[in-house]
Specification:
Layout: H1 3-25, E1 31-36, H2 51-57, H3 60-66, E2 71-76, H4 80-89, E3 95-99, H5 100-108, E4 113-118, E5 126-130, E6 145-148, H6 153-164, E7 173-176, H7 179-187, E8 193-196, H8 199-205, E9 209-214, E10 225-230, H9 231-236, H10 238-257, H11 263-269, H12 276-283, H13 288-291, H14 298-313, H15 323-326, H16 330-338
Parallel strand pairs: 1-2, 1-3, 6-7, 6-8
Antiparallel strand pairs: 3-10, 4-10, 5-8, 5-9
Helix pairs in contact: 2-10, 5-14, 10-16, 11-12
């Protein structure tokens, strides 16, 4: 082959390679599938209480990808975390909010998920009993029928609370119920108690239940949620993944910016059917900016590391794993730099009390 012909062949090959590479770089999905572990009151497709909810309620992802012709779908699951893991296992979800325990169970069981950012951290846990119940403390629950949504972060919180009061799950007659079913069961006295979130405050306000435990008042364990993505999607569409994380960070920034006048946030979350007043009470005097932080900081990593160990100790998982290897902070870090928000949220140390320099 002559040198000139060889040059033509090489040139054509390089041009084809460039075109192919460019096509791959511009590849984009037809749809982004978001799984949402929960439903609002009356099965409405709205949930409140965290930045992923803000992202959904304000239509932020849809607006971001409208110009690309990419559809965004939200699947609200009454089966919560366990149902979300099923979608991941069957290749039917790309991203989701997911509580600490279900995400740990899924990853421990082989689901190829990655933690991309925090969302819904430091969440409270409540225990309610019927209004006329003689039960007045956690210790009084021994031998009682208690509704606990198994496989959710509520189950791990319940195990910790019970242990603090000298009890174990086996000391109760635990009934596995989703949130809506448990709310109805406590009103009809089909269970003696229910472990839940701020939705139980509404039952107290309606005088159909009374609270015997409030993690905020009892300095109890906090629940956490993170924003999770499936490895297949992340690897195939890294730029799209980065844009999804960017929108989540923008939702966290908007929420944080309402700290001085948080009523706007509570009113938005109230579309879920949980009253505005309950979200306000649940937040209490805590910083909305701190609660909205997307940072994968030492505090969150230590909390997840501890929960992996606790889940194993309570028999909720068989295999432990490295949380540090599970998280994928690069998209979050790039987005924070792009948006000039590297110092907006202060990372918190492992103890949860001290703040670190933003560049740590």
């Amino acid at each position: 082959m002559s040198r000139s012909l060889w040059s033509i062949v090489v040139g054509a090959f390089l041009a084809l390679a460039t075109i192919t590479s460019s096509a791959r770089a511009e590849e984009k999905p037809a749809v982004i599938r978001i799984a949402f572990p929960g439903v609002g009151v009356g099965n409405r497709p709205y949930v409140g209480g965290h930045t992923t909810a803000v992202m959904h309620l304000r239509g932020m992802l849809e607006e971001e990808f409208k110009k690309d012709g990419i559809k965004v779908t939200w699947t609200f699951l009454r089966g919560a975390g366990p149902a979300t893991n099923e979608l991941y296992a069957n290749g039917l979800a790309d991203f989701s909010l997911l509580g600490d325990l279900p995400s740990i169970i899924g990853h421990s069981g082989g689901l190829k998920t990655r933690v991309l950012a925090a969302t819904g951290i430091r969440m409270n846990t409540y225990i309610a009993v019927p209004a006329d119940s003689p039960v007045n403390s956690v210790k009084d629950l021994k031998g009682k029928r208690v509704a606990i949504f198994k496989g959710t972060n509520m189950q791990l919180a319940a195990s910790k609370i019970l242990e603090t009061h000298g009890l174990k799950e086996k000391d109760l007659k635990v009934v596995n119920m989703d949130t809506a079913t448990a709310r109805a069961a406590i009103i009809t006295n089909d269970v003696d108690a229910v472990v839940g979130g701020p939705e139980l405050l509404a039952l107290r306000d309606q005088q159909t239940a009374k609270l015997i435990y409030n993690s905020a008042k009892d300095a109890g364990p906090l629940r956490h949620c993170s924003f999770v993505g499936h490895e297949n999607f992340i690897k195939k569409y890294p730029e799209i993944t980065k844009r999804v994380v960017k929108v989540l960070v923008q939702a966290a920034k908007w929420t944080s910016d309402q700290e001085a006048t948080p009523n706007t946030v509570y009113q938005l979350w109230a579309k879920s059917g949980t009253p505005y007043s309950n979200f306000k009470e649940d937040t209490g005097n805590r910083s909305l900016k701190t609660l909205s932080s997307p940072l994968l900081d030492p505090y969150l990593i230590s909390q997840y590391t501890k929960n992996v160990e606790e889940a194993k100790r309570f028999g909720l998982i068989r295999n432990t794993f490295s949380v540090q290897e599970w998280i994928e902070p690069r998209f979050l870090n790039e987005v924070l730099k792009e948006l000039k928000l590297e110092s907006f949220w202060q990372p918190v140390d492992a103890s949860g009390g001290g703040k670190l320099a933003a560049n740590n």
